[in-house]
Amino acid sequence: MADAGPQALCAREPRVPAERLVAEMVPPPRFDSVRFDTYNPDPAQPSQSEAVTVLSGFAAGLGGAHASGAGKKRWFSKKPAAPAGPRGVYLDGGYGVGKTHLLASLWHATPAEPALKAFGTFVELTNLVGALGFQQTVQTLGGHRLLCIDEFELDDPGDTVLVSSLLSRLVEQGVALAATSNTLPGKLGEGRFAAADFLREIQGLSAHFRPLRIDGQDYRHRGLPEAPAPFSDEQVAKAAYATDGASLDDFPGLLEHLARVHPSRYGALTDGITAVCLTDVGPVPDQSTALRLVVLADRLYDREVPVLASGVPFDRLFSDDMLNGGYRKKYFRAISRLTALARDAKPLVSQ
Length: 351
Hints:
Blueprint: H1 18-23, H2 46-61, E1 88-92, H3 99-109, E2 117-121, H4 122-132, H5 134-141, E3 146-152, H6 157-172, E4 176-181, H7 195-201, E5 209-213, H8 233-242, E6 246-250, H9 251-258, H10 266-269, E7 275-281, H11 287-302, E8 307-311, H12 320-323, H13 328-349
Parallel strand pairs: 1-4, 1-5, 2-3, 3-4, 6-7, 7-8
Helix pairs in contact: 2-3, 4-5, 11-13
Protein backbone atom coordinates (compact mmCIF):
# COMPACT_ATOMS: atom_id res chain seq x y z
CA MET A 1 0.00 0.00 0.00
CA ALA A 2 1.11 3.58 -0.56
CA ASP A 3 2.70 5.26 2.45
CA ALA A 4 0.08 8.02 2.50
CA GLY A 5 -3.52 8.11 1.41
CA PRO A 6 -4.50 9.50 -1.98
CA GLN A 7 -4.79 13.21 -2.55
CA ALA A 8 -8.00 14.94 -3.57
CA LEU A 9 -8.15 17.23 -6.58
CA CYS A 10 -11.09 18.92 -4.89
CA ALA A 11 -8.76 20.06 -2.10
CA ARG A 12 -6.45 21.85 -4.51
CA GLU A 13 -6.77 25.53 -5.46
CA PRO A 14 -3.67 26.26 -7.56
CA ARG A 15 -2.38 29.74 -8.28
CA VAL A 16 -0.44 30.14 -11.53
CA PRO A 17 1.77 33.23 -12.04
CA ALA A 18 2.03 34.74 -15.49
CA GLU A 19 5.71 33.75 -15.71
CA ARG A 20 4.72 30.10 -15.51
CA LEU A 21 2.21 30.53 -18.33
CA VAL A 22 5.02 31.75 -20.59
CA ALA A 23 7.56 29.14 -19.48
CA GLU A 24 5.07 26.33 -20.05
CA MET A 25 4.41 27.24 -23.67
CA VAL A 26 6.20 24.10 -24.87
CA PRO A 27 4.80 20.76 -26.08
CA PRO A 28 3.17 18.95 -23.14
CA PRO A 29 4.87 15.91 -21.53
CA ARG A 30 3.01 13.43 -23.73
CA PHE A 31 4.69 15.03 -26.74
CA ASP A 32 8.17 15.62 -25.28
CA SER A 33 9.77 12.88 -27.32
CA VAL A 34 7.65 12.87 -30.48
CA ARG A 35 9.37 13.56 -33.77
CA PHE A 36 8.41 13.27 -37.42
CA ASP A 37 10.08 9.86 -37.57
CA THR A 38 7.98 8.59 -34.64
CA TYR A 39 4.73 9.49 -36.40
CA ASN A 40 3.09 6.31 -37.70
CA PRO A 41 1.27 7.19 -40.94
CA ASP A 42 -1.67 5.02 -41.89
CA PRO A 43 -0.71 3.31 -45.19
CA ALA A 44 -4.31 3.72 -46.35
CA GLN A 45 -4.07 7.51 -45.90
CA PRO A 46 -1.29 8.96 -48.13
CA SER A 47 -2.06 12.48 -46.90
CA GLN A 48 -0.48 11.54 -43.55
CA SER A 49 2.90 10.73 -45.11
CA GLU A 50 2.62 13.84 -47.26
CA ALA A 51 2.03 15.95 -44.15
CA VAL A 52 5.29 14.71 -42.63
CA THR A 53 7.18 15.67 -45.79
CA VAL A 54 5.63 19.12 -46.04
CA LEU A 55 6.07 19.96 -42.37
CA SER A 56 9.67 18.74 -42.34
CA GLY A 57 10.40 21.10 -45.21
CA PHE A 58 8.54 23.93 -43.47
CA ALA A 59 10.66 23.47 -40.33
CA ALA A 60 13.88 23.39 -42.35
CA GLY A 61 12.84 26.59 -44.10
CA LEU A 62 12.71 28.43 -40.78
CA GLY A 63 16.38 27.81 -40.13
CA GLY A 64 17.64 30.85 -42.01
CA ALA A 65 15.36 33.31 -40.25
CA HIS A 66 16.59 35.34 -37.30
CA ALA A 67 14.44 36.19 -34.31
CA SER A 68 16.20 37.19 -31.14
CA GLY A 69 13.57 39.15 -29.27
CA ALA A 70 11.12 42.00 -29.56
CA GLY A 71 12.63 45.21 -30.77
CA LYS A 72 15.65 43.47 -32.29
CA LYS A 73 16.39 42.22 -35.78
CA ARG A 74 13.26 40.75 -37.39
CA TRP A 75 12.59 38.34 -40.21
CA PHE A 76 10.89 40.87 -42.43
CA SER A 77 13.71 43.37 -42.27
CA LYS A 78 15.29 44.16 -45.63
CA LYS A 79 18.42 42.13 -44.82
CA PRO A 80 18.05 39.22 -45.03
CA ALA A 81 14.87 39.00 -47.08
CA ALA A 82 12.02 36.99 -45.67
CA PRO A 83 11.60 33.52 -47.20
CA ALA A 84 8.96 33.38 -49.92
CA GLY A 85 5.62 31.62 -49.50
CA PRO A 86 3.12 31.31 -46.66
CA ARG A 87 4.62 31.76 -43.20
CA GLY A 88 2.05 29.50 -41.59
CA VAL A 89 0.49 26.06 -41.92
CA TYR A 90 -2.95 24.91 -40.87
CA LEU A 91 -3.38 21.18 -40.14
CA ASP A 92 -6.85 20.27 -41.34
CA GLY A 93 -8.22 16.93 -40.15
CA GLY A 94 -10.49 15.11 -37.73
CA TYR A 95 -9.64 14.32 -34.12
CA GLY A 96 -7.24 11.48 -33.46
CA VAL A 97 -5.35 11.63 -36.79
CA GLY A 98 -2.18 12.84 -35.07
CA LYS A 99 -2.37 16.59 -35.65
CA THR A 100 -0.92 17.40 -32.23
CA HIS A 101 1.87 14.86 -32.76
CA LEU A 102 2.75 16.58 -36.02
CA LEU A 103 2.45 20.07 -34.53
CA ALA A 104 4.78 19.13 -31.67
CA SER A 105 7.17 17.49 -34.14
CA LEU A 106 7.27 20.75 -36.07
CA TRP A 107 8.15 22.59 -32.85
CA HIS A 108 10.96 20.14 -32.10
CA ALA A 109 12.28 20.18 -35.68
CA THR A 110 12.43 23.97 -36.01
CA PRO A 111 16.09 24.97 -35.63
CA ALA A 112 15.82 27.49 -32.83
CA GLU A 113 16.36 27.56 -29.09
CA PRO A 114 13.28 26.54 -27.06
CA ALA A 115 12.99 30.10 -25.74
CA LEU A 116 12.37 31.26 -29.33
CA LYS A 117 9.56 28.79 -29.99
CA ALA A 118 6.14 28.67 -28.36
CA PHE A 119 3.55 25.89 -28.26
CA GLY A 120 0.14 26.07 -26.62
CA THR A 121 -3.56 25.57 -27.02
CA PHE A 122 -5.85 28.39 -28.03
CA VAL A 123 -7.13 28.54 -24.43
CA GLU A 124 -3.59 28.82 -23.08
CA LEU A 125 -2.86 31.65 -25.53
CA THR A 126 -5.96 33.61 -24.51
CA ASN A 127 -5.04 33.03 -20.86
CA LEU A 128 -1.59 34.45 -21.57
CA VAL A 129 -3.14 37.59 -23.07
CA GLY A 130 -5.37 37.88 -20.02
CA ALA A 131 -2.40 37.57 -17.67
CA LEU A 132 0.08 39.81 -19.51
CA GLY A 133 -2.14 42.14 -21.50
CA PHE A 134 -2.20 42.42 -25.28
CA GLN A 135 0.85 44.64 -25.80
CA GLN A 136 3.04 42.70 -23.39
CA THR A 137 2.05 39.43 -25.08
CA VAL A 138 3.07 40.89 -28.45
CA GLN A 139 6.42 41.92 -26.98
CA THR A 140 6.89 38.52 -25.30
CA LEU A 141 6.15 36.44 -28.39
CA GLY A 142 7.25 38.92 -31.06
CA GLY A 143 10.85 37.75 -31.07
CA HIS A 144 9.91 34.11 -31.52
CA ARG A 145 10.69 32.09 -34.60
CA LEU A 146 7.58 29.90 -34.39
CA LEU A 147 4.22 29.89 -32.60
CA CYS A 148 2.23 26.65 -32.63
CA ILE A 149 -1.45 26.86 -31.63
CA ASP A 150 -3.22 23.59 -30.96
CA GLU A 151 -7.02 23.38 -30.90
CA PHE A 152 -7.70 26.87 -32.23
CA GLU A 153 -11.20 27.49 -30.85
CA LEU A 154 -13.55 29.41 -33.08
CA ASP A 155 -16.75 29.14 -31.07
CA ASP A 156 -16.23 32.47 -29.28
CA PRO A 157 -16.21 35.38 -31.77
CA GLY A 158 -14.59 37.73 -29.24
CA ASP A 159 -11.67 35.41 -28.56
CA THR A 160 -11.29 34.70 -32.27
CA VAL A 161 -10.95 38.42 -33.04
CA LEU A 162 -8.53 38.87 -30.11
CA VAL A 163 -6.22 36.05 -31.20
CA SER A 164 -6.48 36.99 -34.89
CA SER A 165 -5.36 40.51 -33.97
CA LEU A 166 -2.51 39.09 -31.91
CA LEU A 167 -1.38 36.83 -34.73
CA SER A 168 -1.49 39.71 -37.21
CA ARG A 169 0.91 41.65 -35.01
CA LEU A 170 3.19 38.64 -34.61
CA VAL A 171 3.24 37.98 -38.37
CA GLU A 172 4.35 41.60 -38.87
CA GLN A 173 7.32 40.80 -36.63
CA GLY A 174 8.22 37.71 -38.61
CA VAL A 175 6.83 34.97 -36.40
CA ALA A 176 5.92 31.81 -38.33
CA LEU A 177 2.60 30.21 -37.39
CA ALA A 178 1.19 26.70 -37.26
CA ALA A 179 -2.29 25.78 -36.08
CA THR A 180 -4.97 23.16 -35.72
CA SER A 181 -8.57 24.12 -34.94
CA ASN A 182 -11.84 23.09 -33.41
CA THR A 183 -15.34 23.12 -34.84
CA LEU A 184 -17.64 26.12 -34.84
CA PRO A 185 -21.12 25.65 -33.34
CA GLY A 186 -23.44 24.20 -35.96
CA LYS A 187 -20.59 23.00 -38.17
CA LEU A 188 -21.29 19.30 -37.90
CA GLY A 189 -19.99 17.89 -41.19
CA GLU A 190 -17.19 15.43 -40.56
CA GLY A 191 -16.66 16.42 -36.96
CA ARG A 192 -13.87 18.76 -37.94
CA PHE A 193 -13.53 22.43 -38.81
CA ALA A 194 -12.80 22.69 -42.54
CA ALA A 195 -9.83 24.68 -43.78
CA ALA A 196 -11.97 27.11 -45.79
CA ASP A 197 -13.99 27.99 -42.68
CA PHE A 198 -10.83 28.41 -40.59
CA LEU A 199 -9.26 30.73 -43.15
CA ARG A 200 -12.47 32.76 -43.41
CA GLU A 201 -12.67 33.22 -39.64
CA ILE A 202 -9.12 34.52 -39.34
CA GLN A 203 -9.80 36.78 -42.33
CA GLY A 204 -6.72 38.92 -42.97
CA LEU A 205 -4.41 36.14 -41.82
CA SER A 206 -5.59 33.63 -44.40
CA ALA A 207 -2.84 34.50 -46.86
CA HIS A 208 -0.26 33.50 -44.29
CA PHE A 209 -1.53 29.92 -43.94
CA ARG A 210 -1.10 26.91 -46.18
CA PRO A 211 -3.90 24.38 -45.47
CA LEU A 212 -2.60 20.85 -45.06
CA ARG A 213 -5.29 18.16 -45.06
CA ILE A 214 -4.67 15.05 -42.93
CA ASP A 215 -7.16 12.25 -43.52
CA GLY A 216 -7.68 9.21 -41.34
CA GLN A 217 -9.49 7.61 -38.44
CA ASP A 218 -8.85 8.23 -34.73
CA TYR A 219 -5.53 6.44 -34.18
CA ARG A 220 -6.41 5.85 -30.51
CA HIS A 221 -8.99 3.29 -31.64
CA ARG A 222 -7.16 2.00 -34.73
CA GLY A 223 -6.93 -1.73 -34.05
CA LEU A 224 -7.37 -1.28 -30.30
CA PRO A 225 -9.96 -2.92 -28.03
CA GLU A 226 -12.99 -1.10 -26.70
CA ALA A 227 -12.60 1.00 -23.57
CA PRO A 228 -12.49 -1.12 -20.41
CA ALA A 229 -15.70 -1.31 -18.40
CA PRO A 230 -15.77 0.85 -15.27
CA PHE A 231 -14.62 -0.74 -12.04
CA SER A 232 -16.41 -0.83 -8.70
CA ASP A 233 -16.07 1.94 -6.13
CA GLU A 234 -14.13 -0.46 -3.93
CA GLN A 235 -11.66 -1.36 -6.69
CA VAL A 236 -11.06 2.30 -7.53
CA ALA A 237 -10.52 3.28 -3.88
CA LYS A 238 -8.18 0.33 -3.25
CA ALA A 239 -6.11 1.22 -6.32
CA ALA A 240 -5.94 4.87 -5.24
CA TYR A 241 -4.57 3.91 -1.82
CA ALA A 242 -2.10 1.47 -3.39
CA THR A 243 -0.70 3.97 -5.93
CA ASP A 244 1.81 6.59 -4.82
CA GLY A 245 0.78 10.04 -6.01
CA ALA A 246 -2.78 9.05 -6.96
CA SER A 247 -5.80 11.25 -6.37
CA LEU A 248 -9.24 10.05 -5.32
CA ASP A 249 -12.39 12.11 -5.84
CA ASP A 250 -16.12 11.71 -6.13
CA PHE A 251 -16.95 12.66 -9.73
CA PRO A 252 -19.92 14.97 -8.94
CA GLY A 253 -17.80 16.76 -6.35
CA LEU A 254 -14.95 17.18 -8.82
CA LEU A 255 -17.29 18.72 -11.39
CA GLU A 256 -18.41 21.26 -8.79
CA HIS A 257 -14.79 22.03 -7.92
CA LEU A 258 -13.88 22.63 -11.56
CA ALA A 259 -16.44 25.43 -11.63
CA ARG A 260 -14.41 27.22 -8.95
CA VAL A 261 -11.02 26.83 -10.66
CA HIS A 262 -10.17 28.75 -13.83
CA PRO A 263 -9.46 26.37 -16.74
CA SER A 264 -6.01 27.94 -17.14
CA ARG A 265 -5.13 26.28 -13.83
CA TYR A 266 -6.29 22.75 -14.67
CA GLY A 267 -2.75 21.75 -15.59
CA ALA A 268 -1.46 22.99 -12.23
CA LEU A 269 -4.38 21.20 -10.58
CA THR A 270 -2.81 17.90 -11.66
CA ASP A 271 0.81 18.73 -10.73
CA GLY A 272 2.46 15.68 -9.21
CA ILE A 273 -0.56 13.43 -9.72
CA THR A 274 0.36 9.98 -11.04
CA ALA A 275 -3.20 8.68 -11.50
CA VAL A 276 -6.69 10.14 -11.21
CA CYS A 277 -9.20 7.85 -9.51
CA LEU A 278 -12.87 8.76 -9.73
CA THR A 279 -15.93 7.19 -8.15
CA ASP A 280 -19.57 7.58 -9.14
CA VAL A 281 -18.90 8.82 -12.69
CA GLY A 282 -22.17 9.79 -14.32
CA PRO A 283 -23.59 11.87 -17.19
CA VAL A 284 -22.50 15.50 -17.16
CA PRO A 285 -25.48 17.69 -16.22
CA ASP A 286 -25.01 20.72 -18.48
CA GLN A 287 -22.90 22.15 -21.26
CA SER A 288 -20.82 24.54 -19.15
CA THR A 289 -19.77 21.66 -16.91
CA ALA A 290 -19.12 19.50 -19.96
CA LEU A 291 -16.79 22.08 -21.53
CA ARG A 292 -14.81 22.34 -18.29
CA LEU A 293 -14.46 18.56 -18.24
CA VAL A 294 -13.14 18.68 -21.81
CA VAL A 295 -10.33 21.01 -20.70
CA LEU A 296 -9.45 18.74 -17.77
CA ALA A 297 -9.42 15.71 -20.08
CA ASP A 298 -7.02 17.54 -22.41
CA ARG A 299 -4.64 18.40 -19.58
CA LEU A 300 -4.70 14.84 -18.22
CA TYR A 301 -4.07 13.43 -21.69
CA ASP A 302 -1.21 15.87 -22.31
CA ARG A 303 0.41 14.74 -19.06
CA GLU A 304 -0.29 11.03 -19.61
CA VAL A 305 -2.14 10.71 -16.30
CA PRO A 306 -4.19 7.46 -16.27
CA VAL A 307 -7.82 7.71 -15.18
CA LEU A 308 -9.46 4.90 -13.20
CA ALA A 309 -13.20 5.21 -12.70
CA SER A 310 -16.35 3.61 -11.42
CA GLY A 311 -19.85 4.45 -12.62
CA VAL A 312 -20.84 4.81 -16.27
CA PRO A 313 -18.44 4.30 -19.20
CA PHE A 314 -16.82 7.42 -20.60
CA ASP A 315 -18.83 7.19 -23.82
CA ARG A 316 -21.95 7.94 -21.76
CA LEU A 317 -20.69 11.16 -20.20
CA PHE A 318 -22.36 13.48 -22.70
CA SER A 319 -25.99 13.55 -23.73
CA ASP A 320 -27.19 12.97 -27.29
CA ASP A 321 -28.00 16.68 -27.54
CA MET A 322 -24.39 17.53 -26.65
CA LEU A 323 -22.96 15.00 -29.07
CA ASN A 324 -25.15 16.35 -31.86
CA GLY A 325 -24.56 20.02 -31.05
CA GLY A 326 -22.00 22.62 -32.02
CA TYR A 327 -19.37 21.40 -29.54
CA ARG A 328 -19.57 17.78 -30.62
CA LYS A 329 -15.95 17.62 -31.75
CA LYS A 330 -14.74 18.64 -28.30
CA TYR A 331 -16.89 16.01 -26.63
CA PHE A 332 -15.80 13.24 -28.96
CA ARG A 333 -12.18 14.24 -28.41
CA ALA A 334 -12.71 14.10 -24.63
CA ILE A 335 -14.31 10.63 -24.91
CA SER A 336 -11.45 9.45 -27.09
CA ARG A 337 -8.79 10.75 -24.74
CA LEU A 338 -10.45 9.58 -21.52
CA THR A 339 -10.90 6.15 -23.10
CA ALA A 340 -7.17 6.01 -23.85
CA LEU A 341 -6.37 7.06 -20.28
CA ALA A 342 -8.79 4.43 -18.93
CA ARG A 343 -6.84 1.78 -20.81
CA ASP A 344 -3.63 3.13 -19.29
CA ALA A 345 -5.18 2.86 -15.80
CA LYS A 346 -6.29 -0.77 -16.13
CA PRO A 347 -3.05 -2.23 -14.66
CA LEU A 348 -3.56 -0.23 -11.44
CA VAL A 349 -6.35 -2.58 -10.39
CA SER A 350 -4.09 -5.62 -10.52
CA GLN A 351 -1.39 -4.07 -8.34
